[in-house]
Fold each of these.
Amino acid sequence: MVKLSSLVWGALAVGHVVSKDIYADKRRISLGTGSDVWMDEAEIHALVRNNQRFRDITDMGPQVERSRASNMSVFPTKVTQQAVVNPLLRQVSDTVPQNVLRNLTSFHNRYYNGDFGRQSSEYLFQT
């Protein structure tokens, strides 16, 4: 059996590992603002140090554009379904959700392999 370190040293000896300046390449970074920026490693490390959220989309290609297009939501500007919703609102009650939560939180725990887990799952199944 060959040790991993032997493989690494062997690769170094025959020149299979090419040293490369990682700061030379730029990556396509999305900052969540809708536009992309090309940044090198130093700039990316600065984002990390500043706790700024980002996503490396260099290797994503066209699916990024499709994803952005599919995430664009169109919200209505005026209420149009009041005739349907208002009668239903009269039937809404908060007692059922309160009772379910009260019963579920009364179990000591809901570990799947214990008695409380079995009892809580039976309760949910019946509800």
Amino acid sequence: MQPSRSDPPTDFHDADREAMERKIREALETLSQVRVTVMNHEQADESVLEQRVDRLVRGYSDMFALKDRLNVNIPEDVLGYVKEGRNPDEFTSQFVERVASENQFTNGKIAALTNFKQEFEAKLQEFFPEELKERQKDETTQ
């Protein structure tokens, strides 16, 4: 069961991760506000823009301080997606699809082998009934 956003963190690593996620969300919101302020720039907005940039810099500083307390492994493929400007959720989606396809392929192999085993045992029973009984007797005594 996944913890909800309102559940308290289970240990200090979760608390640090939650803090970093919160700082990232705040930075994204501040960047959005800076963009709006710049797009609608007027002389009176300079102090607002300055406050928002200061808040953004403080947020980056807080994230930098938190980074050493986090132990997060990010796959190289995901980093490549981000470097290419692609959404990492796209990687996750493709990965899940690939795993599901491989799982279906594996299940097909298992089903084929199960059918082969059943048919093989039936043919053994048909052509070598005495040897099969002897083999089963040997297996039960072991």
